Amino acid sequence: MTNFTPLPDMVLEPFIKTALMEDLGQYGDITTQAVIPDNVIYKAKFNAREEGVLSGMQVAALTFKLVDASLDIRPLIGDGSRCKKGDCLMMIEGRASSILMGERVALNFASHLSGIASLTAAFAKQTGTTKTRITCTRKTTPGLRLLEKQAVLHGGGYNHRYSLSDAILIKDNHIAAAGGITAVLNRARDKASHMVCIEIEVDTLSQLEEVLEVGKADAVLLDNMDTDTLMKAVEMADNQIITEASGNMALNRIAEVSATGVDYISVGALTHSARIMDLGLDF
Description:
Number of strands: 12
CATH architecture of the largest domain: Alpha-Beta Barrel
Shape: elongated
Low-confidence stretches: none
Largest sheet: 6 strands, parallel
Strand content: 15-25%
Order of helices and strands: HHEEHEEEHEHEHHEHEHEHEHE
Strand order of the largest sheet: 6-11-10-9-8-7
CATH superfamily of the largest domain: Aldolase class I
Mean pLDDT: 96
CATH topology of the largest domain: TIM Barrel
CATH class of the largest domain: Alpha Beta
Structural class: alpha/beta
Number of domains: 2
């Protein structure tokens, strides 16, 4: 089940323009300029070469529009939808030269983002009927965080904080530098507005006990705990605080971690290790 709304085109345009400038370089597509007359009109199909969950289709369509607004672009299967091998995802008709200029950028975005969406869907499936939600992290490609986090939503996952300015997330190094759990939570609550969430990382049940005693955190990140320890941590939290499991969250472990009753499982691999989905454009 997806939980997203499409981003406005004006938000996506800077990402695409940067990619087009990178690909077209100083002189544009000199191959196409040399061999394809400007008046040649063609139809092209944006095809799936394997099964998966789509993301980046809005970006791909906008890429072609930014190259040539006269192109006729007909999306057939949109972001957040599952496709089969051989499905036609989009039809593009117009100047062959324009289609060729936008081809690689459109495919790069859609293949990369669909890979993230497909991996996220695989993780989300493992949570079964539990309440556990799969969420991403800040381990994203520099400059592409917005698109990659949107791809996670397309795959049925959820987003963690977008940036360091979104929420207070106290990690082990913060605790060490601030003088301990009680000290760091007191300082955080004194500084935070009523609109800011405070989450703190713990590695042990004794640390969790101290967090619960202080009572100033909204969420706790249970880091690198084995499944039995996670189950005990969730029992200790007893719905007083949001629980998030993190660290060593491989796909084959998600079902058993979800069964502990944890609220969230954060998975850096969704964005830093997803392979691309095989998509192609054919005249």
